[in-house]
Design goal:
Strand content: 25-35%
Radius of gyration: 16 Å
Distance between the termini: 28 Å
Number of strands: 6
Structural class: alpha+beta
Length: 149
């Protein structure tokens, strides 16, 4: 959740910039990647995702064995399962299971799921949604068992 957030169209105060930098580093964005989403849109995305993750994370006592997180990569938000490798529990794996990519020109989110070939495929039952929250509801409902199995 973004604290002391004063979102105004095309205007962000210093506090929001500081919060954004903390949140971006918390989401493991690659150091050399460029964030192509507008800064105000980015703040909305982070706030939506932080609220969602707070609701869906497993109990604290099992988070070292299974956790849920997300990553922002360019114009995409990727939901991830976080768990130790079965071969070497000291290695922590972040495995994407649902992805939404923002298309600014159409103001929509394309919805993807990861198949057994480890490639992202458009989600045929609902290939686009208007809001990020619609994507998260789609993943939670998972009517076709594509996202969580």
């Amino acid at each position: 959740m973004v604290a002391n957030s004063k979102l105004e169209k095309n205007k962000i105060d210093l506090t929001d910039e500081q919060v954004l930098m903390l949140k971006l580093s918390d989401t493991d964005i690659k150091k050399n990647s460029t964030m192509t989403l507008e800064i105000t849109k980015s703040l909305e995305i982070i706030e939506t995702m932080e609220n969602y993750i707070t609701k869906v994370r497993p109990a604290p006592e099992i988070r070292n064995q299974l956790d849920i997180g997300y990553e922002i990569e360019d114009q995409s938000v990727i939901l991830q399962e976080i768990r130790p490798s079965w071969k070497d529990p000291t290695i922590i794996r972040r495995i994407g299971y649902a992805k939404a990519t923002y298309v600014k020109s159409k103001n929509i989110w394309n919805v993807f799921w990861q198949r057994s070939d480890l490639k992202w495929h458009i989600y045929p039952p609902k290939p686009t949604v208007k809001k990020l929250s619609d994507f998260l509801k789609l993943v939670d409902d998972d009517k076709h068992a594509c996202f969580k199995g």
